[in-house]
Amino acid sequence: MNASTFDGDMGTRAPVAAPHPTHKLRLLLKREFWEHKGGFFWAPLVAGGISLLLTIMAWIVAEVVARKAVADGQINIDNDIKINGLDLGVITGKMSPDDFHQLGQGIDFSLLTFAMWPMVVLAFVVFFYCLGALYDDRKDRSVLFWKSLPISDRDTVVSKALGALVVAPVIAIAAAMITILGFMAFISLVVLIHGGNPYTLLWGPGNPLSVLAHLLASIPVYAVWALPTVGWLMLCSAWARSKPFLWAVMIPVFAGIFVSWFDVMDLFNLESGWFWGHIVGRSLLSAVPGGWLTLLDVDHVQNPEQLGSLLDVGRSYAVFLKPEMWIGAVAGVAMLVGAIRLRRWRDDN
Amino acid sequence: MNATVTSSATSVVSARGLRKAYKNKVALADTAFEIPAGRIVGLIGPNGAGKTTALKAMLGLIPFEGQMRVLGRDPRTQRDELMNDVCFIADVAVLPRWIRVREAIEFVAGVHPRFDRMRCERFLANTQLKPDMRVRELSKGMIVQLHLALVMAIDAKLLVLDEPTLGLDILYRKQFYQRLLEDYFDENKTILITTHQVEEIEHILTDVMFIRDGKIVLEAPMDAVGERYIEVLVNADRAEEARNLRPIDERALPFGKTVMLFDGVEPGRLTHLGETRTPGLADLFVATMKGTYA
Fold this sequence. Notes:
- The complex is a heterodimer of chains A (349) and B (294).
- Chain A has 349 residues and is mainly alpha-helical.
- Chain A contains 15 helices and no strands.
- Chain A has one domain (24-345).
- In chain A, helix 2 (37-71) runs parallel beside helix 7.
- Chain B has helices at 2-10, 51-58, 79-82, 101-111, 117-125, 140-152, 170-184, 198-201, 222-228, 239-243, 281-288; strands at residues 11-22, 25-36, 40-44, 65-70, 86-89, 158-162, 190-194, 207-212, 215-221, 229-234, 249-252, 258-263, 274-277.
- Chain B is an alpha/beta fold and 294 residues long.
- In chain B, strand 8 (207-212) and strand 9 (215-221) form a beta hairpin.
- The chains are: A mainly alpha (349), B alpha/beta (294).
């Protein structure tokens, strides 16, 4: 009837190891990466890869068409018809410094376009990651396993927020960099095939490194800018007993409709558009990279020539001087604090 | 105040006046209990009696009213420190489905100061689990093996098991408790188990608590249970005489014999009525919980 018969085993048992130091935050971030490897890692990489693949296919088609045209004698470069199609060496020789400058901006612009695809994917990944972050483990009850370990709810929520604000963007930007370099390598090859010098034609006038630096520099901007959306979605994620997506989207949208309908904003001498932009928009769409550009005066950027201003890191950082940036960040942090509290006491298992 | 301090020094868990009401049911109603250190305690009760609620309160997972000390700490306000010394298996199959065996080990090793990786790997060496397997590819029994290996490699002072073997076949169930006794339990550890499979754990328990409608109705060491309760196989001709001693339960057997369960009746007064023996926990449970679902 009692366990005294088992006392004999105790002497033979191996001694238990002494307490060892822990690396909680590192492991928590690692856990997010393990769980969301598909969204964090593969999705931006695949998006970049697909855009590259499409470009290569488009080039092959263009090449075939061009060769046909050349063969048919429809294209005529300086009366100097080449058997192998376009000769970039000839073109390069005729370009003025100003042309090179424009060419460089064009190259930078196409590089940014290539960086865009992993970034678009990032927006979706972060949105749905946050919605599920504090909900999925409650749904499959694995929250009980996580809560059986000595990790505070604060650490859990903070690690998940960092996953969305830092880990995901860093990886997406790495994917964007790989895409950009892949693209540069590819067009270098194209230029070579056509007898041009990739250095004078691409790597000289273009600024792939400054595009990369700009992307890297935008990570802190993104982390602060995305806070209200991350905070709101994680709050919903910690709170909802079911359908976090519906709650997260419907509450701000219906609030917006309500506000527009009754012209509530008139009370503050503001238009309904203000509410849609600053409340609904910031709580749902701030996970889109580059969203902060709407706060800056970038309307004048309509062609590649003015792109230089976009690539100026200082301009992105100017957003840190805007009160909207910080008010949103404070609201985001407050919602994360709410999420921590909900995480601590939510009992639905 | 003094009493609380001294009791929390020797008790692993000490609870007084617990109250927890859900929307349409009171789960804990003035519940009080003490769990001494170095014991294996079974918390046994029918469905909906408040077992899981009591465990959740102990683990700081839910808010509640009343006094509760676990290892001298209040689980509501000091949960983060408490979890260094307390571990629990809430249920089978709560390990996240996406995690790989090796990731689970790496994670627990990285966040738990008392986790012994070598121990965990030694436990897993005797199973079919491979480091690259994901939990979603494992059978329920294998998931429990993994969970148990993770938990047993943690040198916790209190281990709480809530229906840890639900849905497992008999081989895994036996192995589970065997492991727990042989490789884990010692005088510095306390284990609290709830389960419906009373027969399977009664031989490993040192103490038992019965809970009914949010109240602890029996709290005793197993030895004391053996002394207090006596089961007698009474012949039909002695039945009236036996009934005068007020058995708490009786059930008829074929051929006119009746099994009667006595609470606190002196053994000397029972021996002449028929064959006596110590009742099984299951019979005791059924007798104590009579009318629960009525």
